[in-house]
Amino acid sequence: MDQLVAHQRAQDALAAVLGGVAPDQLAAPTPCTGWTVRDVVEHVIARNHWVAGTAAPEVADPADLAPALATSARAAQQAFAAPDGLTRMMDMPFGPVPGAVVVGMRTTDALVHAWDVARATGQPTDIEPELAEASLAAARTRIGPDLRGPGRPFAEEQPCDAGRPAADRLAAFLGRSVG
Fold it and tell me: Rounded to whole angstroms, how far apart are CA atoms 22 and 121?
């Protein structure tokens, strides 16, 4: 799947799930330990702006979260689609990597956070099956034991039946309990 198409689909998936969130659900805890629904959405907004090299705005009014997410997603998509968007080096906590690697990471991040929000708000978690399958395959090659555990980006892989939707299996691989 084209990386830019995949990134856009993941961003769109999160936007669609956010559209199903009631205002009183923004404070609900998510499977992303320690984060509420609002925290997860604000995280994606901030990381999208980071990709674009712009400052993430403060979103005081909950009604402004969806437009802020859309604006940030467009900014990130434009940054990746720029002539050097997939080749320029980007500083990550583990060192500089090309945009082609970062776009894959951002795709997986947006998709699994769409899953987090869906799970926290009682929405279906069978999100973007084809994209989730591709993201899971990529995550299996990128995420090893050195990235798992306390103080690291990912928790230990959780059990998940192979017959579950790909997004559930992706979430479990990234450390979420899919129960």
Answer: 8
**Can you state the angle between helices 3-19 and 65-81, rounded to 10 degrees?**
180
Q: How far is the C-alpha of 9 from the C-alpha of 107, rounded, in Å?
A: 8
- pTM of the entire predicted model: 0.95
**CATH class (in words) of the domain with range 3-173:** mainly alpha
Task: Reduce the DSSP state of residue 121 to 3 states and report it.
Answer: coil
Query: How far is it, in rounded angstroms, from Cα 88 to Cα 39?
Result: 29
Tokens 């990134």 -> residue: 7
pLDDT in tens, 111-126: 999 999 999 999 999 9
Task: Count Cβ atoms within 10 A of the Cβ of residue 109 and give its class: 0-12 exposed, 13-18 middle, 19 or more buried.
Answer: buried
Write down the domain spans for the chain.
3-173
**Residue whose structure tokens are 């991040």:** 109
Coil, helix or strand for 85? Answer: coil
